[in-house]
Amino acid sequence: MPDLTGTVTIVTGGNAGLGKETCRLLLSKNAKVYMAARSEAKAKAAMDEIKKSTGKSNIHFLQLDLADLASVRKAAETFIAKEQQLHILFNNGGTMFSPVDQRTKQGYDGEWGVNLLGPWFFTRLLLPVLTVTAKTAPKGKVRVVHNSSNAEGSWAPPEGIVWESLGTDEKAHKVQEALGDMKRYGQSKLGNLLFSNELARRYADAGIVSIVVHPGAIRTELQRHTPFVLKMIMRTFILYPLKFGVITQLYAGTSEEPPP
């Protein structure tokens, strides 16, 4: 990773797993880091540990609950009130196999809401500051990195996005139940891919690079809703240590190679 002095970054879901390690390595390279997370207590504990391990202190808490669009708006407004620039946004936060009745504050499917709708809204609100930053930053240095999964191809419904499942009424809830956990998750990851591609198409001329990545099969808290037996099988035989997964999004966000 290059030296990131003067680079302002946000990492959603930054208090644990891939997000925490991303924050640690960004800070170690002198970036200014905003750890966006739902729990202030957990975030502060994570920040204290990161400060101790890196010997650096330019890391800050940003209250963000991706399952509540009002919280998302407030987080963006709080950031914009403090900063005039944003160089890298890591849309890292997410969930996997959340219970079908665990919906967002506004009543949307939890997988769709946390994995796509919340990050989409957050990014949309931050586009003005990203665009302004891109006007003076070196070409290709303003980036939005979306942490997705290869589940967008293997687990998403074969017909793609099931639009009938995206509402907040009882009919939509029944469609969500019929889809099941794997398809609900895969659909949200397909949404990440489509969103990243469209963001790249619309804002390339404004100097914003949008990249979607698959971190690999990694042991993180993302599997907290996975059934116990399946979780043990995955962690023992399938999933790789955390340190391998963080490489992907850090490379996408900070590589000095010119983006495609």
From TrEMBL:
Record key words, sorted: NADP, Oxidoreductase
rRNA processing keyword on record: no
A GO term, aspect molecular function: oxidoreductase activity
Gene3D superfamilies recorded: NAD(P)-binding Rossmann-like Domain
Membrane-crossing residue ranges in chain numbering: none
Highest taxon, organism lineage: Eukaryota
Keyword Hydrolase in annotation: no
SUPFAM superfamilies hit by this protein: NAD(P)-binding Rossmann-fold domains
InterPro entries xref list: NAD(P)-bd_dom_sf, SDR_fam
Family label: Belongs to the short-chain dehydrogenases/reductases (SDR) family.
Protein name per Swiss-Prot or TrEMBL: NAD(P)-binding protein
Species annotation: Hericium alpestre
